[in-house]
User: Fold these one by one.
Assistant:
Number 1:
Amino acid sequence: MSDNKEIAIYEQIRKDLTVVDGTEYTVPMAAVFGKGTVAKIESFGNKTLAQNTQLVDAAIQNSRELQNIWNHSHSQWDWKHINLSYHSPLKNMRQIAAEISRKKSALNEAKWKQIEQEVKIRKIEEKLETGDLDYWKEVDLKVKLAKLKEGMAEGIVYIEGAMKDILALNDLYEQLKNKASEFSENDFEKEESKNHLKRSVVQCIRDVRQSGSITKGEQEYLEQIGVNPGKMQLLIRQYIAKEVEDSWSTKGLQDFVSEIVDELIDIQQVDIQRMEMMGFSPDSTPDFTYDKKVALLTKQDESDEQSAD
């Protein structure tokens, strides 16, 4: 092997790869682009490529701490105000379940990838420990080892982000028990008429605010629930005419939606009439649902709820 032969990252990896836990290891950009034949290429800012890569390494290191904050899907504020914004607590419960399921799948995938990478790393390390390798075989294995370790280090940031989301969602689940607790799948089925009608009414209100009438899609949604769109449109127009007199909060909206939904489902029973006209039973079949109660309140939860009342 020629003594003056420098091949970018190979020599550094060959000499300096000492980190074994895979949590902090990274190969600097300057170790690749700042050496070898490309190092002296003229780059931007009247600097060489080697000089610019050193600046980039410093910038990446300087801003690395930001990833500890913005490494997950949503802030806790986003979860509460945007993602869990249904007017139905049970629908928000459903959304929490779906989000946790997605995050769990992502973590499971990351878990098995971590295991596979650790196995690959250990296999390479065992080969390197034999000491019976020619120069290029050793270089090849150490490049693969460096890539695996750096990938593991980068992946930890996103794993922690998914963990944050799951913990935040679980906390919101516990908070939401004050609004919806000790329910089964059959209980959820019984609330679906109200759940969907609340969503439809809110969307219809937005339609009327924007264009003065309910759009065709929302009319269909109301009809599927069993509501007369013409009467709903008239009622919403009356509400909107007075809406400007409400406070800046959305409490007036919440009260209006709850009042009209309770009237139509509990008293008028429009959903039951719709099912009977269609030839269906208005009730879900208990045999097809999970009958065990979930979201159970602990004694401490019950005490806190009574104190709040």
Number 2:
Amino acid sequence: MKDMLGVRTVVIAEIGVNHNGSMGQAKELIHQAYFAGANYAKFQTFRSESLASSDAPLAKYQKASSDHGSQRKLLKELEFTNADFLELKEYASGVGIGFLTTAHDQESSAFVLEMKLDFVKVPSGDVTNLPFLERVAQAGQPVLLSTGMSSFDEVQAALSVLTSAGLSPHDVTVMQCTTEYPAPAEEANLLAMVAMGDKLGVPIGYSDHTLGPITAVAAVALGARVIEKHLTSDVNLPGPDHSASLEPGEFREMVEAIRVVEVSLGDSVKKLQPSEVENRKIVRKSIVAKKLISQGDQFDAESLAVMRPGFGLSPMLWHEVIGQVAHRDFQPDEPIELS
């Protein structure tokens, strides 16, 4: 991913359905995602009749922001056409930001896969959807596998479906996720993200539904290569996801923090850094005379001290110096030299 985008961590602004059914709002959020520093603006593609049955109840978080009696009625008001998504993709290209959208049903998946986007997102609700997984795998495109509500065994089984169809594990980024809006920080379980990467041999990422930017930034410090976070123009707007989203200013602060974390991670090799070179000479110490030492005196612990700066003999040579004979006089605080 670094070669693709020139960044260590891909940041996705999840607009999702925060457009509230308005193309104008969708385009404005694409602009906001760009100015916030995101690499992608992402949406959700679905046909409400194919995604939810007529009597599918609302989730608790959906009830909190909607008076619709069923998921299908709620989703219908948030649905865009295929032509809308093609227009948004072109619009994002003009703005200068990547475009992604998540398919949530078989019909929509065919359309999204035909768009040949940089990543195909498998949403948390489809981790156990075998036909959907097979269809995604057969497309041969890099996959973001979201794992909300899943056990490790379910994630492993989903990955097996994807790789058995020819995808390399390196093409599947496993995204830790907690499917609640907003999600409690204590249920983020970021260490599960790290463990999945180690056990499955895949890149890891984090789809964040917690309040604020802190958990997402922490995920980057733990090795997340993809961060997905909801973006809204106003967290108080009606709709299922706004309350778990960041407004543009806070989203930008999150991206800036992520970029600082990226460079601060370094390369894992412990070494002298360029900014430390001059400081090392001043802050480190040398073996010096604690008192007047005359030529011919034997160096001992009573006559020597360790003091700054570090221009002279290293204190690591202490035992080699002890017992040797001074080849000249040394004044107090003067660095010791051996003949």
